[in-house]
Amino acid sequence: MTDKTGTMLYLDGVSVAFDGFKALNSLSIIVHPAEMLAIIGPNGAGKTTMMDIITGKTRPDDGEVLFDGRTDLTKLDEAAIANLGIGRKFQKPTVFESQTVWDNLEMALKKPRGIFPTLFYTASAADIARIGEILETVRLLARKDHLAADLSHGQKQWLEIGMLLAQDPKLLLVDEPVAGMTDSETVETAKLLKDIARTRSVVVVEHDMSFVRDLDSRVTCLAEGSVLAEGSLDQVSANPVVIERYLGR
Amino acid sequence: MLTQALFRALDKKAIWLVAILIAVAILVPASNLLLPNGHPLRLPNYAVPLFGKYLTFAMLALALDLVWGYCGILSLGHGAFFAIGGYGMGMYLMRQIGDRGVYANPVLPDFMVFLNWKELPWYWHGFDNFWFAMLMVMLVPALLAFVFGFLAFRSRVTGVYLSIITQAMTYALLLAFFRNDMGFGGNNGLTDFKEILGAPISADTTRAALFAASAIALALAVLVCSMVVNSKLGKVMVAVRDAESRARFLGYRVEYVKLFAFVVSAIIAGIAGALYVPQVGIINPGEFEPANSIEVVIWTAVGGRGTIIGPIIGAIMVNVGKSYFTGAFPEFWLFALGALFVITTLFLPKGIVGLIGQYRTLTTKREQHDRSAPSPADVEAGADPQPKAAE
């Protein structure tokens, strides 16, 4: 297919079936460095399965999944893939509820993940400053000592984005980041993600069309496990097949 | 680096707990040994090894809490590590008997002579050295926990399935240790000990020393556990407990985090078992009984899991209750134990410690409420909604 070098994420002909149901059917997607890609598509199109495959939760039956043009992700487990520099935000915000906002970020902060470095870890001034910076970016500075469980739904989403930032990944996979957010929060999130995409690759899965419009990025529409259309949002949403299979319904 | 981590571990509660345990380690033996017979503050002789036994149980419960309360691994086989530690100490004590046994064999313990064995099995060698035996008391449970944990956690066996295989582990060991061919005294186990480190095992001074050793070992275990749970690794353990796959996507190797907790916990349990045996004078396969391990879970739940002090309080309270009940109404003890577990699960999910914590937040909240809430009259009068500090 296309040249693999110089890509951040390269999926070619990826297929996976669960009990005979083809969740992904020869899916091919490319994401370049410092590029944002928005993925839309109806329920069951395989968006989350695709993320599961990239992050090592699910193994594909067939196809090639490369990170940074060379690392084969299908051979690695979740922790190894996370440490390569792929961060994931889940559809349902998953933060560590019984711990404080600060602790959530401290655990996410990019540091050696081994047992003994973690056991003897003491936060350096630089680490503390970095966490403070992230707290400010995601507007949770005032709530840093609160338990994550006490945050509102939108704040949990933002905390999870903060944890992604703390991981300092090269590629961010963001699954429905604005679900349950107010309109103004949605606008802010779009701004934040665009800001992040200046230096890193970001893949956003979202249903909210006005949010996708705000992102102003390349759009890929998935359906039944493969790519239906690609291009700008206007191109994709004008595509008659997309209207029939997704938007029109 | 290490000292820094230790200082962090010494939060206020842990300091208090360690201080109390050291005070107990001094005061209880002193009261038993120094005060004259009949003095109201003198602890009777029988009570010293009894309380010493409770302390070793508390240590076992603390070990379980490290994996269950903090890391979400409900081990229903922790009694196995305790029993193995106990057997390690028992083997040392057997070798100390020497030719004072019934058959007066200077090397072979009585049960081996009885079985017509001619020489000591290879795994009994070295146990005449105290230091070697103590090393094994820690190493063997650690090794078992490592191998078992490595296989189980790597295959991502979690939840109730893991609990069942831990239960199977202790049951398998129970059956193995029952066999005479194993060379651990079979059904009867190891007993009839004479002396420990040259001191007669049932002398008052030895028992007082064993009590003090148990209290100090428990204090050290509190320090170690407190250090682990207050470290960043401790936070990751809680993260694994609450959302295992999320921790994985952050890049933590969940299986190693669990393995670390499991091995540390097994070592603490092994030491507790080694201190238990000389105080009760016997170790037999009954200690591997699955029901024993389940009882440890009850102590921990009653005291309050996920806290350092909870399992200690739980183990001591339940066992004091057990000693009282089995004396006063022996037939009701198991009912009481069952009822205790049901009540704890239904009404006290965080145990006794959680109850105290709840009461505290309730009272402070009420105080704050009383202080800050504007009186209804103010609201009706359309007064400033900002509370006035003076009220």
Defining traits:
heterodimer, A: alpha/beta, Rossmann fold, 6-stranded mixed sheet, 10 helices, globular, B: 391 residues, disordered C terminus
| Overall 3D shape of chain B | globular
Biggest β-sheet strands, sense, barrel of chain B: 2 strands, antiparallel
Q: What is the number of helices of chain A? A: 10
Mean pLDDT of chain A: 92
Category from helices, strands and their pairing of chain A: alpha/beta
The SSE order of chain B reads HHHHHHHEEEHHHHEHHHHH
Please give the share of residues in helix of chain A: 25-40%
The CATH homologous superfamily of chain A is termed P-loop containing nucleotide triphosphate hydrolases
Sequence stretches where pLDDT stays below 50 over 5 or more residues of chain A: none
Oligomer: heterodimer
End-to-end Cα distance of chain A, whole Å, is 33 Å
Strand order of the largest sheet of chain B: 1-4
Describe how the helices and strands are arranged.
The complex is a heterodimer of chains A (249) and B (391).
Chain A: E1 9-18, E2 21-31, E3 36-40, H1 47-54, E4 62-67, E5 71-72, H2 78-84, E6 86-89, H3 101-108, H4 115-119, H5 125-137, H6 153-167, E7 171-175, H7 183-196, E8 201-205, H8 209-215, E9 218-223, E10 226-231, H9 233-238, H10 240-247
Parallel strand pairs in A: 3-8, 3-9, 6-7, 7-8
Antiparallel strand pairs in A: 1-2, 1-4, 4-5, 9-10
Chain B: H1 2-9, H2 12-34, H3 47-68, H4 78-97, H5 110-114, H6 130-154, H7 159-178, E1 190-191, E2 195-196, E3 199-200, H8 204-230, H9 232-242, H10 244-249, H11 254-280, E4 282-283, H12 290-303, H13 309-328, H14 333-347, H15 351-372, H16 376-380
Antiparallel strand pairs in B: 1-4, 2-3
